[in-house]
Amino acid sequence: MKRPTPPIEWAEDHIRIIDQTLLPTEVKVIEIRSADQAVDAIQRLAIRGAPALGAFGSLALVVALDEIEPESLPQAVARLQECRTLIGDARPTAVNLRWAVDRVIDEATKNVSDLVSLRSALIREAQAVAAEDEAACNEIGRLGHELLRDATVIGTHCNAGRLATAGTGTALAPMYAKARAGEPLHVLASETRPLLQGARLTAWELDDAGIDVTVVPDGAMSSTVLSGQIDAYIVGADRIAANGDAANKIGTVGHALAAREAGIPFYVAAPTSTIDFELASGEQIEIEQRDADEVHEIQGSRLTPKGVGALNPAFDVTPNHLITAIITEAGVLRAPFKDSIAEALGQVGGI
Ligand code: MRU
After folding, report:
1. Which residue numbers in the chain have pLDDT < 50?
2. What DSSP element (H or E) covers 295?
3. pTM, rounded to two decimals
């Protein structure tokens, strides 16, 4: 079987990524060789999805260091410190980005004696971030598969699959597991305006894997749920507060409300690296506000009358009481989330 093009790949002195803005029309791999190119790729969503941002941001530190050709260790360390915000804060909501950048810099600069070993330590730690994410996806897939064994029609929003992680995805990992087990499966992917991650990316990657997927306009999803056509929902997350409130792509909370009304489970799937234990509740999560032109236009064509305004918050927060369970690599967490999250983070050494 043909190996799918990896969304992120380290190539000795540069990073190769699929430019996700062009999917599904074109599968184009672009090369990232500087911090500015990395920040640009993050901000225009050429690379996206919380865990993928963590994996990519980690490798971006290496190109950011190579770019300045440092002559001394203090100069190199100063450059990395600068990258904590330059790269780590390129997008504000997905905590994995800042988490991974901080982790890789902290680990690589610990007890380092020269420039060569600093660079090797950065690569080693960045690869560990990606490997751990891949393992987390596998475990989330296994646990989610158990929960979704009786579900045939599954709803999802945005893209939380292999394009958004260093593995098989978070919300989509259980779908891949179900497909591998030969279980009947039909995924309803909401289109996810304004940037259409559901229609473009989830539809592309599931179809590519031979999984039956139907794209549903965002506005048609609630009536589809309420008329009993969906067995369960599973979505990803960009940041989960200590009380289980979960930020994810704008529109997610509407799906959660519809799921609650219809009496079907609403699962959030995320690695523990997406949990921000320092935030007591979702009210404290910073929501990225993006350019209004993403709403005014679709792929370069103007939709709205010139002169009208547009709101473009990129994420919303689903309150914990609408979430049936949070599926992590450390187990399936249920209410009271404050306790189950603290226990899970304790297990993985996160607090
Ligand atoms: O703006 P995006 O495309 O980066 O938003 C991505 C999402 O909201 C995903 O659901 C989330 O990051 C989880 S990815 C495993």
Report:
1. 1
2. helix 293-296
3. 0.97
